[in-house]
Amino acid sequence: MTDVAVDKTDPAGSLSSTEKEPDDLIEEKNQDNPPAAAAEEGEGAAGGVYRYIKDDLFTSEIFKVEIQNLPKYIGFNDLKKFLNKHGVNPHKIKLFSKQMFAFVTFKNQEERDKAMKAVHGMQWKSKVLSVRLAKPKADPILKKRKLEEEVEGGQPGTKRAAGSQEVEENEEEPLNIQIANAVTPLWNVPYEEQLKRKEKEVEGVLQKLTREIGNNNKAMLPWLFVQKEKFNKMCCPLEAIRPSPVLTEYRNKCEFVIGVGADGEDKTVGFRLGKYKGGSCAVVSPSETTHVSSEAKRVVQGFQQFIRANPYAVYSPETYEGHWRQLTVRTSRIKQTMAIVFFNPQKLQEEEIEELKRNLHQYFTEGEGKESGITSLYFVRMGQRTSAGTEDLPCEHVTGEEWIHEELLGLKFRISPHSFFQTNTPAAEVLYSAVGEWAQLDQDSTVLDVCCGTGTIGISLAKRVKKVIGIELCQEAVEDAKANAEANGLTNVEFHCGKAEDVFPTVLNAVVSPNVTAIVDPPRAGLHSKVILAIRRAEHLKRLVYVACNAKAAMNNFIDLCRAPSNRVRGSPFRPVRAMAVDLFPQTMHCETILLFERVDYTKSSNTIPSMIATKKHAILQTTNTHLARLTGQVVHSRRLLGKHIL
């Protein structure tokens, strides 16, 4: 599930917006960092590698600083917490391993200046910090082009030339192989081997979690010692990975970029061979990719024909000119298809845009595009960002139904343009069935479904429990969830719209059920720390099922659930008792991970941490007493021998 209007699943099948986001362009370790003003000179001219900061567009790269002389061995979260503690609100942080500096960006100049005053000269772990302005990230495409020009002109560029040779070797491969390597990197690996690799990844995550729990909760060490012996250095058993029931054409949602094709064809709809920040904008058709459905490919082909016959140009992330940006296609097993067209209006008149929408309507309902099988068509005006907001863009309904519908576990679900729905429906059934099994529910249970999307998990469990309460950020998804509950004849389900960190504590405190289970399915970065703290405080919540689309990124959530109580983290800790991977993304390295956490119950005498500690202490005391007794005996014996010797 996701708290933002993007697909939280693997990037292999759904590329992000065609927009180049300078905000995401982070400089590498060897970045030169003169003051930001330097960007206004030389290279910073209108045609230079810093051109993107000249327009009235939002990029936090303009408000960037470098923090120097950081303590050793600190991590991203350490720095973020330190800054937040002192009233500093960073937009993005780039921390380099084994380095003593970091780059931090802010949403505006006021916040940047406030941070500089607050942090500069401050002491942290015996280190006095210093802060200075940092130069923005150079535009990757323009930087690459400049380096290539230097090489061609005979200027120093040996390292770049070597890199170019490697790129040229890759470019010798057919385009269908190149795009397969980019979006489905395991396409030529046998499926059993894919599963082994993914299971090994999750095993590594659990082994790291084991070490982190030991570092953050010493009281769990005796329990961890036993668990590690049983489960190959892991804190809990890792069950066999569950495979996807389908291996090809499994994606029900894909986001296609629109740009110049790698074959030179303009107005190509497909996937990029690389990322913009890697210096590549070339697009390849998805026609030979294995994970995209035939229905989606048909829509792509029809839409590509339409824009090639249309006078409007493709949007360029390099120059910010042009119009056509992205095509999102959603499909369902009941043969319904939604297409969402993203278009930059630039300075077009309203009448011109309305005429374009009428042409789209006519093409896909009466013209050649009718064969595409679209049942729902939307149009989105997508200009450049002028602020740091990430709100959903309004969708203008062009033709067909307002939603598509899907069936999952014998239930019916409607899906809006911005609503989250797992991208592999058959594998989602495997995932949700496991979640329901692990939650150990009964008719007295109350389920808290956090980041619930269209309500799939909660609704699939509703008939087995007393009540389901869902929380979701996206308003469209909440409306879908309510409609889905009604369509499936459920009356014991309610949904709340808002940020999980704002809504969850209130909802949780209002629950009076003696049997409460939380099921969380958050976006890649995991749950907000406020949600974790609320879970820890709610002692009546005994069981938590965590569905992680990126277990490594959710590590801090896992640690905070298990760390020792403190002034900040109140309430008894949880501990992981069961884990399993479910493969929702064949041909890629991504998978979903389920972890079952249970509250440590200090009131029971058996199998609890206090009793284990007491047992351990008793064993140590017995050992110590035994050693003392032996030592005393040796001393007495020595005295007797000494006495005899004197006599």
TrEMBL record:
<dbReference type="InterPro" id="IPR029063">
    <property type="entry name" value="SAM-dependent_MTases_sf"/>
</dbReference>
<dbReference type="InterPro" id="IPR000504">
    <property type="entry name" value="RRM_dom"/>
</dbReference>
<dbReference type="GO" id="GO:0003723">
    <property type="term" value="F:RNA binding"/>
</dbReference>
<dbReference type="Pfam" id="PF00076">
    <property type="entry name" value="RRM_1"/>
</dbReference>
<feature type="active site">
    <location>
        <position position="549"/>
    </location>
</feature>
<dbReference type="GO" id="GO:0030697">
    <property type="term" value="F:tRNA (uracil(54)-C5)-methyltransferase activity, S-adenosyl methionine-dependent"/>
</dbReference>
<dbReference type="GO" id="GO:0006396">
    <property type="term" value="P:RNA processing"/>
</dbReference>
<feature type="domain" description="RRM">
    <location>
        <begin position="63"/>
        <end position="136"/>
    </location>
</feature>
<dbReference type="GO" id="GO:0032259">
    <property type="term" value="P:methylation"/>
</dbReference>
<feature type="binding site">
    <location>
        <position position="472"/>
    </location>
    <ligand>
        <name>S-adenosyl-L-methionine</name>
    </ligand>
</feature>
<keyword id="KW-0949">S-adenosyl-L-methionine</keyword>
<protein>
    <recommendedName>
        <fullName>tRNA (uracil(54)-C(5))-methyltransferase</fullName>
        <ecNumber>2.1.1.35</ecNumber>
    </recommendedName>
</protein>
<dbReference type="InterPro" id="IPR012677">
    <property type="entry name" value="Nucleotide-bd_a/b_plait_sf"/>
</dbReference>
<keyword id="KW-0694">RNA-binding</keyword>
<comment type="similarity">
    <text>Belongs to the class I-like SAM-binding methyltransferase superfamily. RNA M5U methyltransferase family.</text>
</comment>
<keyword id="KW-0489">Methyltransferase</keyword>
<feature type="region of interest" description="Disordered">
    <location>
        <begin position="1"/>
        <end position="42"/>
    </location>
</feature>
<keyword id="KW-0808">Transferase</keyword>
<dbReference type="InterPro" id="IPR034262">
    <property type="entry name" value="TRMT2A_RRM"/>
</dbReference>
<dbReference type="InterPro" id="IPR045850">
    <property type="entry name" value="TRM2_met"/>
</dbReference>
<feature type="compositionally biased region" description="Basic and acidic residues">
    <location>
        <begin position="1"/>
        <end position="10"/>
    </location>
</feature>
<feature type="active site" description="Nucleophile">
    <location>
        <position position="549"/>
    </location>
</feature>
<dbReference type="InterPro" id="IPR030390">
    <property type="entry name" value="MeTrfase_TrmA_AS"/>
</dbReference>
<feature type="binding site">
    <location>
        <position position="422"/>
    </location>
    <ligand>
        <name>S-adenosyl-L-methionine</name>
    </ligand>
</feature>
<feature type="binding site">
    <location>
        <position position="521"/>
    </location>
    <ligand>
        <name>S-adenosyl-L-methionine</name>
    </ligand>
</feature>
<feature type="region of interest" description="Disordered">
    <location>
        <begin position="144"/>
        <end position="170"/>
    </location>
</feature>
<dbReference type="Pfam" id="PF05958">
    <property type="entry name" value="tRNA_U5-meth_tr"/>
</dbReference>
<dbReference type="InterPro" id="IPR035979">
    <property type="entry name" value="RBD_domain_sf"/>
</dbReference>
<dbReference type="InterPro" id="IPR010280">
    <property type="entry name" value="U5_MeTrfase_fam"/>
</dbReference>
